[in-house]
Amino acid sequence: MRWKEKLGKCPIPAWLFAVVTVLYCESLLHLWTTKIFAAGRFAAVLAFAMGFGGVIGLVFSFIGEKRWGKWACTGLMALLTVFYIVEYFVNDAYMCFMPVNTLLGGAQGVATEFTGIVLHLIVQGFWRIAVFFLPVVLYALLAAPCQTRWRTRGFLLAGVIAAYLLSFGIVKSVGTDVERMDVSYNFDSAVRCFGLHVGTILEQTHSAVAQNTEVEFAPVAPPPTEVTEAPEQETEEPPVIYEPNVMDFDFDALAQSEGNASVAAVHRYVSTVTPTMKNEYTGLFQGKNLILITAEAFTAEVIDPERTPTLYRLATQGIQFRDYYQPAWGASTTTGEFSNLVGLVPTTAGMCMKEATQQNLFLTMGHQLQARNYYSAAYHNHNKDFYDRDKTHTHLGYDRFLARYGGLEGITGVFPESDLEMIDVTVPQYIDHQPFSVYYMTVSGHCMYSQKENAMARKNYDVVAGMDHCEAVKCYYASQQELEYAMESLVRQLEEAGIADDTVIVIATDHYPYGLERSGAWRNTSDYLAELYGVDSYDKFIRDHNALIVWSGCLEGKNIVVDEPVYSLDILPTLSNLFGVEYDSRLLVGRDVFSGESPLVLWPDFSWKTDKGQFDAQSGTFTPAEGADVDEDYIARVKSIVRNKIDYSRQVQNLDYFNYLAKARQ
User: Fold this and answer.
1) Residues with Cβ < 8 Å from 311, sequence gap 6 or more?
2) Closest by CA position to 203, among listed 335, 347, 99
3) Could you read off the pLDDT of 345-376 as tens digits, one per residue?
4) 319 phi and psi, to 5 degrees?
5) Among residues 608, 581, 605, 586, which one has the least CA distance to residue 597?
6) How do strand 601-602 and strand 401-404 relate by DSSP bridges?
């Protein structure tokens, strides 16, 4: 008992406990989640952590000297430590950090529905949890109430100021990270560059500023005029003059009459955006049926002429996209759905869809075709309330949303559920109601990728058993095989009904198969994603390269090819033009790929790719495409465009901007 009494009387100041614990947790989080270590960034994380620890230490210096203060400090620091632990496991599963509002909102469904994975993480990662909690446990066991002098508090305050000054000095010296606090802010990048507490502060600050302060969009210099000699023509034909794809909005007038300065700023920005033009493909699909599919964890690697002949047919006999990307927007499936359907950058991560449906989304294909009296329905073969789809998807322009346990009968209760069953159950519901607009969110390709934990991998394993891949990759292919069978059934039913030429099928993924990355969450001891891609290592440009399918029976044999970079935000404007609906190209972030507008693919961390090269915002380096001649003015111009598009998307979501436009249309 005597040794316990001595341990219990150890005079550990509460302020020192706070400083050490914050430093410790920030260091662990950074070192355990950083793939490429950078000394400058780690130094900035440590310096910011010292400042934040000092702030908490000042508070604890008053609490810790109370009789109950030790336990209050222990409890508060335990809660903070849990925050670091949660972010570690979130990053382990999704390869990104998520803001608090996403963790409490959009991600809570993941935790409740995948309880087994959560429990596995706790068991497997218990040693990491224990290591994170080490300072808290030691303080609880060893510390006793301890008085703090005012002079000590003065030194502590001076240390806080010095630590933050040092932090900003380090960030400025790193160079590429300075913009991540302001014009190029992104929560995931901020955590990696400055630490979790700074990322959280910046998230709240930027959200408040976006809602209450007029955003200054970056000025964009016009591109240099290229002079080309017109080719000689044997016969002179008058050039076809196309009109812009715009709606009847006078954004300058709207800005002048708007009392909300932030909304007026967005009006002024949109007025400066050059609209894309109608073209020879405008109205190609006018009046046709649309089946729009977001395919869970789909990749271009799935498509094979022998193993997946229907997907191969759809990909090669429709519009062929040879350089397509689905950026990893963060927060898993819902952000991918958002980018495909809404055509904006999902700047609010896992909350993007919930927040977007609070405004009038009149530009979605669902709403555009619904206004033309299309029969409309949205389907999902997993639970109806996952990501609150039962509340959001009817707001996307679909008269009904049916899912498992939500009106969709005939789906076997396994996980993941069958895409083929969903197609066979639902097609009879709408095939005789033409024209129709239908949306599917599939689930068969969902991780985990093992026969034990993936029902579709078990069902279709014989198809992939002979493949020269590890077990996890084979199970991934087996799970995606169910999508092939679903598409085979869908095309067959359309052809039997005689409407294949009058129906458009669009398939895009929600995200790359992160369930194959090295991760404790998905129980992968190696990076199986590299094996799937056939590479030794990869960056975001390789990881997010994917396939986009746009097919109709009427396209077969026409050989329409798009070689330029295309991404998920281009889907909505391209379909809007192909279906000949009235839309305003200035209000969408992407472009109609047939409009002649310069291609641009952007990532949430402000990286980008064009036909002239790619820019990695993490390293600040630009890699030109082969044969491209690019100067610094071009790079600066595209960086400004990317910044404006992301800021615009953020403002649309924060201000419910489309509600103002809907009111103006009345």
Assistant:
1) 302, 303, 304, 483, 484, 487, 507, 549
2) 99
3) 998 877 889 888 899 999 999 999 999 999 99
4) -80, 125
5) 586
6) unpaired
Residues 277, 279, 281, 282, CA torsion sign: positive
The b/e string for 506-525 (b: 16+ C-beta within 10 A; e otherwise) is bbbbbbbbbbbbebbbbbbe
Structure tokens at 289: 């049926």
- Tell me the backbone φ, ψ of residue 403, rounded to 5 degrees: -150, 175
Cα gap 79→190, rounded to integer Å: 22
C-alpha torsion 33→37→39→41, nearest 10 = -50
> Phi first, then psi: what are they for 292, rounded to 5°?
-105, 125
What is the total residue count of the chain? 666
How far apart are alpha carbons 102 and 351 in whole angstroms? Answer: 6
Quick check: 419 and 486 in contact, CB under 8 A?
yes
467: left (phi over 0), alpha (psi -120 to 50) or beta: beta
Task: Give the C-alpha separation, 526 to 547, whole Å.
Answer: 25
* Token couple for 197: 């507490």
The CA-based dihedral angle spanning residues 328, 329, 335, 336, taken in that order and rounded to the nearest 10 degrees? -30
Among 324, 405, 277, 363, which residue's Cα sits nearest to residue 588? 363
Q: Which of 293, 286, 393 is nearest to 340 (CA)?
A: 293
Say how far apart CA 596 and CA 281 lie, in whole Å: 12
How many CB atoms are located within 10 Å of the residue 26 CB? 25
Contact 416, 444 (CB under 8 A): yes
CB atoms within 10 A of CB 190: 25
Instruction: Give the separation between CA 343 and CA 337, rounded to whole angstroms.
Output: 10
Cis before 448? omega within 30: yes
**Nearest-angstrom CA–CA distance, 492 and 488:** 6
User: Mean pLDDT score of the chain, rounded to an integer?
Assistant: 91
| Nearest alpha carbon to residue 330 among 517, 106, 176, 528 | 106
Cβ atoms of 128 and 365 closer than 8 Å = no
- 138 vs 135: CA distance, rounded Å: 5
As a whole number, mean pLDDT of residues 243-251 equals 97
**Average pLDDT over every residue of 612-639:** 93
Which residues in 415-448 are b (16+ Cβ under 10 Å) and which e? bbbbbbbbbbbbbebbbeeebbbbbbbbbbbbbb
Integer Cα distance of 109 and 461 in angstroms: 29
**Using CA atoms, how far apart are residues 538 and 639, in angstroms rounded to an integer?**
23
Q: How far apart are CA 473 and CA 534, in angstroms?
A: 11
Tens digits of per-residue pLDDT, 312-348? 999 999 999 999 999 999 877 999 999 999 999 998 8
Q: What percent of the residues of the chain are helix, what percent strand, and what percent coil, each to the nearest 5?
A: 50, 10, 35
CB contact set of 452 (below 8 Å; sequence gap of 6+): none
Q: Which two tokens stand for residue 9?
A: 């009387």
Is the predicted pLDDT of residue 619 greater than 60, yes or no? yes
| Residues 6 or more apart whose Cβ sits within 8 Å of residue 2 | none
Cα angle 595-663-338, degrees, rounded to a multiple of 5? 50
The two structure tokens encoding residue 588:
């969408």
Q: Compute the distance between CA of residue 341 and CA of residue 322 in angstroms, rounded to an integer.
A: 21
